[in-house]
Design brief:
This protein has 2 domains: 56 residues; 184 residues, Cyclophilin-like (Cyclophilin), CATH 2.40.100.10. Helix content is 37%, strand content 22%. The chain has a 9-stranded antiparallel sheet with strand order 3-11-1-2-10-6-7-5-4.
Length: 250
């Protein structure tokens, strides 16, 4: 059966009664609308399923009830790193909320393959951005209450990093010298950095952390959080890492 050429079809359409032409135009438009809506619904369904999957994965990697765990009055922990081990002692009365959070992070294996991304010579060594963005975001979004500074930021003491009210969450730093100005540094509605622990062994290994990048990576935290350790290992291969951290039996 021969088909009309395109031009012939057009004239055939024009020759139709106006009622039939309107009906065809209306039907074509209706089919077009259904097609568009169908694909929009599909996209929304796909997005909804993706959100459900992400939430399911996040719920397995983080549980709200973990934040209810209270740390003992004191505890010791070991951090295994690419430069060797170091041990810390945390004292809850120095910063109850801060020490509780540190205990929660360690007991739930947060510090595994975590980059020591910011090492500024004669200042601080900072770490805590998790390689898994789901885990990182889950902890980061749950900042703890602010507390006063009760212990000086002495050499080899440890405190949470923070950028404003109730932003202490998952990143901590080790003072590489006496940073007493951090006791009273006021900005963004908070004052000072409450000490939560002190390094009691392995100080020499901490001083081996690569510090050649200085403050560079401190300004690239968003990229580290988004692209993980793959970004660091490609662009900044000399960065050291926390392999794992765990509580030591007294």
């Amino acid at each position: 059966m021969e088909s009309f050429p395109l031009k012939g079809r057009f004239f055939y359409f024009i020759a139709m009664p106006s009622e039939i032409r309107l009906f065809i135009i209306f039907l074509t438009f209706e089919l077009f609308v259904i097609f568009v809506l169908k694909h929009r619904i599909m996209k929304k369904c796909i997005a909804f399923v993706a959100i459900l999957i992400l939430n399911s994965c996040a719920s397995k990697k983080f549980k709200e009830k973990w934040l209810e765990k209270e740390a003992p009055a004191t505890f010791k922990a070991r951090f295994e790193t690419t430069q060797g081990n170091f041990d810390i002692k945390a004292v809850r009365e120095w910063s109850p909320a801060g020490v509780d959070r540190l205990y929660q992070l360690i007991t739930h294996n947060y510090y595994e393959d975590v980059s020591i991304f910011r090492v500024v010579p004669k200042f601080v060594a900072q770490f805590g951005i998790h390689n898994d963005s789901l885990i990182n975001n889950a902890w980061q979004k749950r900042g703890i209450k602010d507390e006063p500074v009760l212990q000086k930021n002495d050499s080899m003491t440890i405190a949470f990093a923070r950028g404003g009210v109730e932003t202490r969450s998952n990143q901590i730093f080790i003072n590489l010298k006496k940073n007493y100005r951090l006791d009273k540094l006021a900005y963004s509605g908070v004052t000072g950095f409450p000490v939560i622990a002190k390094v009691i062994d392995g100080q020499e290994n901490i001083l081996k952390f690569y510090d050649g990048y200085g403050e560079v990576l401190g300004r690239k935290q968003a990229s580290i959080a988004k692209f993980g350790n793959a970004f660091l290992r490609t662009e900044y291969p000399k960065v050291d890492y926390i392999k794992k951290a765990y509580i030591l039996k007294e």
